[in-house]
Design goal:
343 residues, alpha/beta, 8 strands, 40% helix, Alpha/Beta hydrolase protein, hydrolase
């Protein structure tokens, strides 16, 4: 898979990526996908080859510290862990703008087709998978912080923001039974991230999703009838898994930047000024029926919150049988799903 990197600020910060390449058709849609915690851009390696046949170019971006993307600087890490609310907000606004800069620079470098008036193939869909939403949402929320020429180009290209099972945030009620291996004090620290990788990629047999209650969810024990996704393609695991320093930074970010990430959720989804700056961007949010329980519980919470702003701001979709790694186990079905969501 072709790869490269783009400088995204005057300090020389780089974001690296893999790229499925341009399809043979002159008009195509570009998906720019951002990975989650503990997995780098190679987590999308199975789905990328399925893109070209569907008039899709699929670009997977490494967040800061993953792959060859520039890690957060020591001063930035200090801000994540101990900074003031204002300093944290400023840092995450900068990280979001860096992703917007990447999107704009990639579009110019490769002359990506713009979004047409008839919404046929063209334009860019920004996909945040899991903790990747910690960057895609601040990026959209930061649209009015970029130079006017960048903002104008993005307005003609961004056709969709896709939230693929984003993590819980303060902007919707958290489940009382919220549980993750990362935060269980009974596990030794070196075991937490490897265990998390197995648990988060598992399938769960939820007893009654139709009830939309915690009692209908299985919060703890994965299915005994379906193996975790990362066991099904062992050769692909090593290039995609990264449970070292970048993942540890993500854990600190989830704890220290909770307020800032919640603000980004609200702004990207519901702020009229943000939506006005990107008038052609649709927001789509999907969750699988066999994914970890807290993703489903949060999906319900955001649905309820969206109802308070009036229907139509966010389109919600439930994917039957899917776990958190649909692109890993079922790449063709995942690519069809992405095509449906960007249409």
């Amino acid at each position: 898979m072709p790869s490269g990197s783009i400088v995204v600020d005057p300090d020389g910060t780089q974001l690296s990526y893999t790229d499925s390449g341009a399809p043979s058709t002159p008009k195509y849609t570009t998906i720019i996908a951002v990975h989650g915690l503990g997995f780098n851009a190679n987590v999308f390696s199975a789905v990328q080859p399925a893109a070209s046949a569907r008039a899709i170019r699929f670009v997977a971006v490494n967040r800061r510290g993953y792959g060859t993307s520039t890690p957060l600087a020591p001063a930035e890490l200090d801000t994540v862990r101990d900074g003031t609310p204002d300093a944290r907000a400023q840092l995450w606004r900068k990280v979001g703008v860096q992703l917007l800069t990447f999107v704009d620079a990639f579009a110019q470098r490769h002359a990506l087709p713009a979004l047409s008036d008839d919404r046929e193939p063209g334009g860019i869909a920004l996909v945040g998978w899991s903790f990747g939403n910690s960057v895609t949402l601040p990026a959209v929320a930061g649209i009015n912080a970029v130079p006017a020429d960048v903002r104008a180009r993005l307005a003609t290209h961004l056709r969709a923001l896709i939230l693929q099972e984003p993590p819980p945030s303060l902007d919707a009620p958290l489940p009382a039974q919220l549980w993750l291996p990362l935060y269980n004090t009974q596990f030794p620290d070196p075991t937490k991230l490897p265990l998390f990788a197995q648990w988060i990629s598992a399938y769960f047999d939820h007893p009654d999703l139709s009830a939309r209650t915690e009692a209908g969810l299985e919060f703890f024990v994965p299915s005994l009838r379906t193996p975790p996704s990362i066991w099904t393609r062992p050769d692909a695991l090593a290039p995609a898994l990264d449970v070292g320093e970048p993942a540890q930074v993500d854990v600190a970010t989830a704890e220290g930047m909770a307020e800032q990430l919640a603000t980004a959720y609200d702004a990207a989804l519901f702020d009229p000024a943000i939506r006005a700056a990107l008038p052609r961007m649709r927001v789509r949010y999907f969750v699988g029926t066999r994914t970890p329980a807290f993703f489903i519980h949060y999906f319900w919470g955001v649905q309820d919150k969206a109802d308070g702003f009036g229907r139509g701001l966010v389109d919600f979709k439930i994917v039957e049988g899917a776990n958190h790694f649909i692109f890993w186990d079922h790449p063709e079905e995942a690519m069809d799903l992405y095509c449906e969501l960007v249409a």
